[in-house]
Amino acid sequence: MKRTHKKLLPLAGLAGFVIAATSANAATTAYRNLVLGDNPIVYYEFDETSGSTAANSATTGATYTGTFNTTGGAISVGQSSFAQGGTAYDFGGGFIGAASALTSSLSEWTVEAWVNYDSAKTSASNFLSNDQGGWNNDVLIGIGAESGNVGVPGGSVGAIQQGSPGTTRDAAGAILGANTWHHVVLTGSTSAGEMAVYIDGVLAGSDTALVNGVTFNGADGIGTANLTIGAARPNSADAGYRPYDGLLDELAIYDSVLTPAQISAHVNAAIPEPGSALLLALGSLVLVRRRR
């Protein structure tokens, strides 16, 4: 009995370690496969641990590879992400210039990301935009986007569309807690006449009384659009810079509106059910025992 007892204790400890590593890898792979299967036009996994570029994993490839600009502050790679998320980026004032603009303007779109913003900045903390100044179908997305008192309220995550012509904004937002990871999806649909916000797979806010619409300006649109990650505009000297402060991971842009079922599937893939973890635990235990 003593030999059996001594043998099981290290096996249980080792199995616990294997569960953590294996389930994390399995969840990350499942999440990535679902995102890619839904055909994003841009997808940044933010798994780089060095360098100053962010790879685009979507089929558009190097067209949207992002380049760091840290004139206005830091971007730290290799940061801890949500439980199954690999690594993340920590934005502290810098931005990533992904391209001059998306190739085409989007009348139907989805932006998806895992967000963990810093409680020190609850307003004007924009993590994605194509803002060029003026009223040009620019879309800004973040915490308190555009600036908290104009657009999405402070302490809320959401999207704001600056239509053309006029100065009226269309916005949708929902309260989001700081300093913790959340799965955030924002959608814009011209056909449905709606902007919507999903938090952790649940519809949390929407705007169905649109004045200017939801068009996400691209290179074929109005003016000189800029796809910017980590700020509202790609110039830290600009008064409208409004940088993001916090952690960000798994950022994707789609030229379609993800359905509630697709959004739920993404969340579920990132957080394995207890039953799946238990099966992994048993499999790991059997494998280790056989090897011993």
Can you offer a commentary on this structure?
Strand 4 (74-80) and strand 5 form a beta hairpin. Strands 1, 4, 5, 7, 12, 13, 14 and 16 form an 8-stranded antiparallel beta sheet that branches. Mean pLDDT is 85; it is low at 1-24 and 275-292. It is globular and about 50 Å long. It has one domain: Jelly Rolls, CATH 2.60.120. It has helices at 2-37, 260-270, 274-291, and strands at 42-44, 53-54, 66-69, 74-80, 87-92, 95-99, 108-117, 125-129, 138-143, 156-162, 169-175, 182-189, 194-199, 202-207, 227-229, 245-254. It has 3 helices and 16 strands.
Structural class: alpha+beta
Percent range for helical residues?
Answer: 10-25%
End-to-end C-alpha gap: 17 Å
The proportion of residues in beta strands is: 25-35%
User: Based on DSSP secondary structure assignment, what is the total number of beta strands?
Assistant: 16
CATH C-level name:
Mainly Beta
Which consecutive residue ranges, at least 5 long each, have pLDDT under 50?
1-24, 275-292
Described by the principal axes of the CA atoms, the overall outline is globular
Task: Output the CATH topology.
Answer: Jelly Rolls
Radius of gyration: 21 Å
Figure out the total of helices.
Answer: 3
Give the name of the CATH architecture. Sandwich
Topology pattern, helix = H, strand = E: HEEEEEEEEEEEEEEEEHH
Mean pLDDT: 85
Number of domains: 1
